[in-house]
Amino acid sequence: xxRRTTLxxxxxxxxxxxxxxxxxxxxxxxxxxxxxxxxxxxxxxxxVLVRGNTIEKISKDPLSTDGTPSVQVIAxxxxxxxxxxxxxxxxxxxxxxxxAALLTxxxxxxNLVAGAEARDTLMRGFTTVRDVGGPSFGLKRAxxxxxxxxxxxxxxxxxxxxxxxxxxxxxxxxxxxxVGAPQSRQEQTGASMIADSPDEVRVRVREQLxxxxxxxxxxxxxxxxxxxxxxDVSTFTEAELRAAVEAAENWGTYVTVHAYTPVAIQxxxxxxxxxxxxxHLMDEATAKLIAERGIWLSTQxxxxxxxxxxxxxxxxxxxxxxxxxxxxTSITLAKKYKLKTAFGTDILFSKRLAQRQGELLVKxxxxxxxxxxLAMATGTNxxxxxxxxxxxxxxxxxGVVEEGALADLLLVDGDPVSNIELLQDPAKNLxxxxxxxxxxxxxxxx
Length: 446
Hints:
Blueprint: H1 2-12, H2 16-19, E1 26-34, E2 43-51, E3 54-59, E4 72-75, E5 80-83, E6 85-90, H3 99-104, H4 107-123, E7 126-131, H5 137-144, E8 152-155, E9 159-161, H6 185-189, E10 192-194, H7 198-211, E11 216-219, H8 238-250, E12 255-259, H9 262-270, E13 275-278, H10 284-293, E14 296-299, H11 315-325, H12 327-336, E15 340-343, H13 351-354, H14 357-362, H15 370-385, E16 409-412, H16 426-429, E17 430-435, E18 438-442
Parallel strand pairs: 1-4, 1-5, 6-7, 7-8, 9-10, 11-12, 12-13, 13-14, 14-15
Antiparallel strand pairs: 1-2, 2-3, 5-16, 16-17, 17-18
Helix pairs in contact: 7-8, 9-10
């Protein structure tokens, strides 16, 4: 017994400080052009030193590695080093399965599918995603522990909706809803939760925060994918939305809402919501309000092919094209009123479409310059992530190449500022992919 106690005491003496005795790994990028996530031009002939998971030094002068024998030197050859891409509207668990599969397939299988997609997401150069709805907590943990390769995940947890709202996929035989009765399949898996009063909203929000949500997502208006949710409807009352905002702010974070229409957007802003997802059907008065209140707009340039997830002649398909038709107006208004605009894709139910994630970023050059588009998907999206405050699961600066920032970096074979289409073919043009100081791809390695 004494020997066992002594052994345990010795083990517990191995504090984090003891493990920290080994110096962190060093990676040196030599002779690169740097896109810093903010500027419109590249800095030529730069050297960037990464120590551990942090960018330590950026200089035109040669950088010393303190004689460290294990330093990895990457000869950039004048190629472009830029921040890892950030998708501000992603659903890590919902990308590949069909709606029917999400409601019927084994949860273990769905997690394995999501893990495979997470690796592909990272290999497309997206080193961070803001997950705005779905049971991604387990996937995030597996990625963070190095079990699965994938992007950083800022999770919202379950989408919070009302009865008949966007996110309510229950069948008719599951009604009427009785508080305290067994949960529906979508609630059991943590995909979405139903809340029909301010008190219920508080409970559902607090549950997601308990699980580790970095921000909270509610559906303030109708949606495309939900079969019983017309686009024009407004769902949560202002009191219900305000309850969510209060619960989130008590935890030092914020609420973002799915909303297309002026009524849904304006009600959410009145309740204190900090970010609007989509906004495709907003009018000019709503855009002005968003600008006046300093609210974020997280929007997408949907391709028509996204409607292929829904059967021809279905209400969902018709709703999708209604939303798509509003894209030009909404983004034009966002530019006119200089809204704080974040880039996302919102890809659902399609592995094939997910493979075009970079292409959906390039679509934004219809309204923005390539440099503005790249900044939106890096430095600007990084600012949005910072709204999570102390609920940020990855303390540190993301989306930029600057000293002290987290080392999420891409080495691009070419100049994406003058040729942003390079990001449409990540397998060919992303030569190095680094996340958190770890290299996941290095095509330059001997």
